[in-house]
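Good morning,

Both structures are done.
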Amino acid sequence: MPKYYPAFLNIDGKPCTVIGGGPIAERKVKGLVEAGARVTVVSPRVTPRIERRTARGQIKQISREYQASDCHGVYLLIAATDDMPLNRSIGIEARKAGAIVNVVDDPDYCDFVAPSIVRRGDITFAISTAGASPALARWLRRQIETQFPSEYGGLATVLAQVRKQLRQEGHKISPSRWQRSIDSKLLDLIKGRKRKEAKLRLLSFLRNGSSESG
């Protein structure tokens, strides 16, 4: 089993292709669309959700079997048919054409593995077992979803706003001080959707070294 180097790819606006139109392909399409990719699906048959994305103009669908030309000009390609030998062949051809390749459920033929994802606004948790146990990755995802509810998406937003403001004011904040600023009271404000109060508390602590919001 290979050791993977964790990385987040910027695929915003980049051409990405999914070969296959079943439930697994549907999940891959969803992740690519959420990341802003220009998605093409190649398959003679697709799920109703893929059809709806096509009708809304979110993706392009080519209703036929795979052809080698589908690899040309592609930044990232996912082979997600129900035919493993075909998926491997697609992966080899796509790699020769210069694409980054993921062959579903076949780590030895992948340039990367798609992790299990939890998104909370600008916060993204990516869980991978290097293909050893997808069930464990899903279990860990559920634990993270429970521990970090959707309100935590506001935490990164508030921190980014405060960081920008302090930079404009000429403040230089040490990494350790930033760490100390994220305490239980700040998290309670975020979970309570009190972003303004959270921002004031952060600014006060980081400017003055005090945890009081004033």
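Second structure follows.
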Amino acid sequence: MKGFRLLFAALTFIASTALASALPREARVPGGIAFVTVPGAGAAPRVMYGDYQTAVIRRDDAWVAVVGIPLAVKPGPQKLQVFTGTGKSEVSFDITDKQYRTQKLTIKNQRQVDPNPEDLKRIAQEQERSSAALSKFTTSGTASLTLLSPVAGVRSDSYGSRRIFNGQPRNPHSGMDIAAATGTPIQSPADGTVVEADDFFFNGNTLYIDHGFGLVTMYCHLDSLAVKVGDKVTAGQLIGKVGATGRVTGPHLHWGVALNRAMVDPALFLENEK
């Protein structure tokens, strides 16, 4: 058992060191990412932000938690729970406010705005499946938190937008919309495993890919899927094609990125974003 623990600690250190070579940009705002130095000697500590475990990397001879910040979190002090071989401690960090724009959209299918009772049952089941997929935390997969853009197209600044469908307020937009013609190829932005794939009521044809260390990506409104649950994918591999399924106003890819279950701004992961 002792030998296994030493091996696990060594593998964790190697993976965590590799993670540090490719990181998203920091933005300590709702929907952003915080890099928080945490205590720990030897093996990487386990860090929890609320109910979810965060990625931990080695940087400048210190352990750093890479924390996804939920869009709904109010500005102010936040706390991490840190577990090491010597016990438990708390580390605080602050986030500041960010104002997102409001989007007003017109949907032709009114059921996509006011679902009927049967639709609501289906939606509730799909929300559970989606949450389970987005909550994955595995130590396999790519040792990188940098992502390729999944599709060629015009990226909008729609992340975080307060959305109004047919005059009715709805939840803020939790992903990036990339406008592209139906049939445009979509590539996996990093190595990973497909953990969910189906036709969802609001999202249409949808994929979820677990990239490891709490990083999960989602792809909505696809015209077709090129992979299935359980498939291992590599960066740049075809995973589907752009479409207009589900609740949409036209063909595009809705791309979501979850880090420790928090849906964060995908633009922070793209190397060529400012």
